[in-house]
Amino acid sequence: MTPDTHVDTLTVTEEHHEQVRSAGADVRLRVCERSLGNATSGRMAALRARLLATGLDEGAVMLEELSRDAWAWVAVALGVPVSIAVALLTRELALAAAVGGAFVALYAVLAGLKVGTVSATLTVRCPDAQRVSQALDAALALGHVEPQGILWRYEVDEASRRDWTARAVGRAHRRAAHLASSLGVRLVALHSLHETPTSPQEAQAAPLAGPPPVARCSKRRVTVTESVEPLASNTERAGVTVTVVFRVEGVPGLEAGEAP
Predict the structure, then answer these.
(1) Which CA distances in Å does 97 have to 73, 147, 174, 195?
(2) d(CA 117, CA 135)
(3) What span, in angstroms and rounded, lies between the C-alpha atoms of 30 and 144?
(4) Distance from C-alpha of 16 to C-alpha of 191, rounded to nearest angstrom
């Protein structure tokens, strides 16, 4: 019971929440492939073809990030310590310089051929949990693909939100009536209503449990034979909390003119 200078009120808070099933998910995949000049090993194209073969639309496979790492720097990273080691061990500066020159030449060759690794991160928009499982299955079977997480999407229609509010308000009214009867007062009218919706948590990606069964951009090809078990749609809690304030009359003592 909340006394007020001008009006007597009774405040009741109720809530209604339900488990909301996801309406789909975005799967993030990282793929690596070797490059030589302007040509690549074609793994990204193969991955895209495999994903589209599962029934996904063209626009469902989106390129999020793309980077290229040159291998030429490896020659420099190895050449400096090897040249110093040769100079210290043999005391032959000419030999050390020749070794260093060989690594410089290797650097020039690798840089000229543009030998390196191309890495890309793809976002695959899946309409349901079954497509999520199929997309992961297709990606892992290719090899050199690392799943980086799943972001589930939730869609709550306006009709459901109105229904949740109506249910919470109905419970609040029944509870207020019971409390008023217990307190010996009468509910007169609605004074105010405040509702706070609870939306599903959409901003957190779910990392896949355990290390992925593929090499991380290694030169060795890895073949994954096991398939991904079908994934159940993720669920999140959603609903509404309402705070309803009712005007009441017949508060004992106040009607007789006593101070609250």
Answers:
(1) 18, 45, 91, 77
(2) 24
(3) 8
(4) 21
Q: Residues with Cβ < 8 Å from 149, sequence gap 6 or more?
A: 27, 28, 205, 206, 207, 208
Q: Say which CATH architecture domain 1-20+156-202+236-260 belongs to.
A: 2-Layer Sandwich (3.30)
pLDDT per residue rounded down to tens, the chain (260 residues): 444 456 789 999 999 999 888 888 899 999 887 766 665 567 888 888 889 988 888 889 888 887 777 656 666 677 677 777 777 777 777 777 777 777 777 767 666 666 677 788 999 999 888 888 889 898 888 878 888 888 888 888 899 999 999 999 999 999 999 999 998 899 999 999 999 998 886 434 445 544 443 333 333 333 333 444 455 557 888 999 999 999 998 876 554 444 44
Q: Are 16 and 167 in contact (CB under 8 A)?
A: yes
Which residue ranges make up each domain of the chain? 1-20+156-202+236-260
**Residue showing tokens 């105010």:** 192
Question: Rounded to two decimals, what is the model's pTM?
Answer: 0.58
How many CB atoms neighbour CB 60 within 10 A?
A: 19
Using an 8 Å Cβ cutoff, are 33 and 41 in contact? Answer: yes
Count the Cβ atoms, other than its own, within 10 Å of residue 76.
14
Residue 179 and residue 12: Cα distance in Å, rounded?
Answer: 9
Q: Distance between CA 96 and CA 52 in Å, rounded?
A: 54
SS3 assignment, position 68: strand
DSSP H or E segment with residue 56 = none
Spatial distance between the Cα atoms of 134 and 48, rounded to a whole number of angstroms: 13
